[in-house]
Amino acid sequence: MPNVYNWQLGRDMGYPYEAEYPKRQFAFVFNTNRCIGCQTCTMACKSTWTFSKGQENMWWANVETKPYGGYPQHWDVKILKLLQQANPDAQTWTPGDASNPRQPYGTFDGKTVFEAAEKMLSPDSARVLGYLPKDEEWINPNIYEDNPSGKTGIKGQYDTSGTSLPEHKTWFFYLARICNHCQYPACVAACPRKAVYKRPEDGIVLVNQQECRGYRKCVEACPYKKTMYRGNTRISEKCVGCYPRVEGSDPESKGLPMETRCMAACIGQIRMQGTVLLNEDGTWAEDRNHPLYYLVHVAKVALPLYPQFGTEPNGYYIPPRWVPRPYLHQMFGPGVDAAIERYMYPDRELLAVLQLFRRSNRIIYRYKMEEGPKVYEGTLRGKPFEMYDDTVIAYGPNGEELFRTKIEEPIYVRPAVHQNSI
């Protein structure tokens, strides 16, 4: 098996194919602290891509309530269990230098879904460790919605006392998910017909439906279960990253790169999507004023989802502040504590970049800050805090200004004549 470099793991790893990287890579950041679980993103995707016969149980975009929810049901618990069986009590991390972009989370010492396959699977199919969900696991996309976790080991009993940060005793949070368009996709690795591929222009992972024969190896292999089987056509389908919008060929985009349907529809303003430049070894090229680069590599508040799987997902999450840390560590890796600390006490630039979320449906390629006056000085959860009414400006692919917004959002006072019109 060839070796490829996975910067999220901080080391080389085995992968069935030699490394090939697009010049720019589709990527996104979801802020779980803002998600209200309204499912607007879910229905935007459903009404655009999966509304036809045979797609009734296809939800390329979904929002699941953690810790109990999942689509398909218990997808993450099952793959974590398989990895534990393949490498008992050794799925651990060695701390490293967080300032090193090639090892920002340290080094993962355990086995990925590719490496564990060599031990757990027979040689004829030893490509990716995974499992094929049962039909009933695909039926309920909203199972356990809003069900909180209470006292450990006591079923159905929640803590009766009040709670506060940093961790709540009774808790849940919403995890919005789409295909991660991974750098090393398990679906690509597993397909015996090479019907699944990454686009060289933006790294979006697609299925060539002329080549697909419905073996469901991609469904079995994807640790995030974002490749799905359509029974009436007997081929696999998955999130296409709304590539006509991303490449500017959608009529609505008017030739300019545009965010996906789920991103543009987000009510809670949790989402930012774009394309990032890559180096020859697949690491992110330094692009200091790209908002995604800033959030992932400078502020380090956005973390990959289950990096230990080894697929190098291009979906990043700002972890929820109130959730017990051990749960977040196994979901987002070793960078959780530092990410939450920075998010809870944002500096001037982070506060500005967070204002870029959902201000436009255009893809942002660069931002710039213009300093404004100080508007607040005091304490935030016991620490000194200052806020400035800075302006943050977003730019498109050709350097054109897309929009500008301020830290202090405008307040509109409704005229008295309209106050009771509802």
Give the structure's gist in a few sentences.
This protein has 422 residues and is of the alpha+beta class. It is built from eleven helices and 19 strands. Helix content is 19%, strand content 20%.
What does this structure look like?
By secondary structure, this protein is an alpha+beta fold. The chain has a single domain, classed as 2-Layer Sandwich (Alpha-Beta Plaits). The chain contains 11 helices and 19 strands. It has helices at about 40-50, 75-85, 115-120, 185-190, 215-220, 245, 260-265, 290-300, 325-330, 335-345, 350-355; strands at about 5, 10-15, 25-30, 60-65, 95, 105-110, 175, 195-200, 205, 225-230, 235-240, 270-275, 305, 315-320, 365-370, 375-380, 385-390, 390-395, 400-405. The strands form 8 sheets. Strands 12-3-14-13 form a 4-stranded mixed beta sheet. Strands 15-18-19 form a 3-stranded antiparallel beta sheet, covered by helices on one side. Strands 1-2 form a two-stranded antiparallel ribbon. The termini are far apart. About 40% of the residues are buried.
